[in-house]
């Protein structure tokens, strides 16, 4: 199975899977907690995909570039960088689940520092 057929299959199955999960979460008594855990799991999966150097098609702005513009970037480094940024959302989601104000403050500081790091690192290291 090639990449385009995998993507097409994912595009067809994903909406139905998301709808089924949301219906389950809304019907159950602890629905909001389930939704938070689902988001946490989704961010972990997305982070792992990016950290493995895959998924550049999902990076906003990069997927709309033409091939000559894409060739100016190291796609593995760029995907890994997006994966690291995705990891910074995990403490934020956890702070909502366990209702920890200290973890919330830590995650906000972490995300601000990660944003500054991304701006500097991406401009200096991701370009070829």
TrEMBL record:
InterPro entries: UCP037672. Keywords: Membrane, Transmembrane, Transmembrane helix. It comes from Methanomassiliicoccus intestinalis (strain Issoire-Mx1). This is DUF3784 domain-containing protein. The chain crosses the membrane at residues 7-28, 34-57, 78-98, 104-122. It holds the Pfam family DUF3784.
